Amino acid sequence: MHHNGRMLGVIGGSGFYTFFDSDTRAVDVDTPYGPPSAPVTVGAVGGHQVAFLPRHGASHQFSAHTVPYRANMWALRKLGVRRIFAPCAVGSLKPENGPGAIVVPDQLVDRTSGRPDTYFDSGGVHVDFADPYCPALRAAVTGLPGVVDGGTMVVIQGPRFSTRAESQWFASAGFSLVNMTGYPEAVLARELEICYAAIALVTDLDAGVTVGQGVTTVEVFAEFEKNIGPFKELMREAIGRVAGDRDCAHCLPHTGVTLPVELP
Predict the structure, then answer these.
(1) Among residues 28, 206, 245, 247, which one is catalytic?
(2) Which of 28, 110, 131, 204 is catalytic?
(3) Whether pLDDT at 28 is above 80
């Protein structure tokens, strides 16, 4: 096991299984919050140790609102991961960032409800979350050609897509992306002192932004499949650009308290 914090985590979609250079091993991890979405696949990507976890499970059996987020983040932390790239599919609220665009958000708005979103179930604790994403990890991706740097990702509860009125509301508020899985993933990473950056692949323009049929699941999956090749290439490059040592203190929560369950 690598416990020096040099192993990178990637939480992504099913298309990433063919991501590794060589032999991989599947690791079952127990957590106080139950099992993660799937066993964690560990292998090498461009000479870097990478732990991959499919957010929605090995056969996409979890919807956005049922993903075991606390178990997922804990499992990666337990394996020694201290930095996570989190690819995700998003709808765009800005017509200029159409399907195929890759956006690295710098802000998040949480519109989910009822999702367990903390490991601190007791005690008087506040978690610093003004800047939800790690600037060092973001920079590793935004430096690559064609990547859109910045934007606010609004995370909706799902499993339904937005109504036109909701989309227009989000767009008028200045948000640029809509997603269903980015929260509580990001804040749980912060609580576990893990650097975290979302990398958003635009699959559609959200309903109500432009006139048309609105979003369908079939189109989203088709668009993701179409772009998975270049997207994986970009992820490989980003992993290569992240230095071996983690010297990023930005993502430590500084809550001044220890977690209620012993931190691996």
Answers:
(1) 206
(2) 204
(3) yes
30 is catalytic: no
Helix (H) / strand (E) element for 138: namely: helix 135-142
pTM given for the model: 0.89
CA distances, 2 to each of 5, 72, 82, 167 (Å)? 7, 18, 11, 43
Axis-axis angle for helices 217-241, 135-142 (nearest 10): 100
Structure tokens at 29: 């991890």
CB atoms inside a 10 Å sphere around CB 182: 28
Annotated active-site residue 204? The verdict is: yes
**Beta-ladder partners of 8:** 50, 83
Report the alpha-carbon distance of residue 175 to residue 157 in Å, rounded. 16
* 139 to 100, 142, 201: CA distances (angstroms): 20, 5, 17
Q: pLDDT for 117-168, tens place per residue?
A: 999 887 777 888 999 999 999 999 998 999 999 999 999 999 999 998 999 9
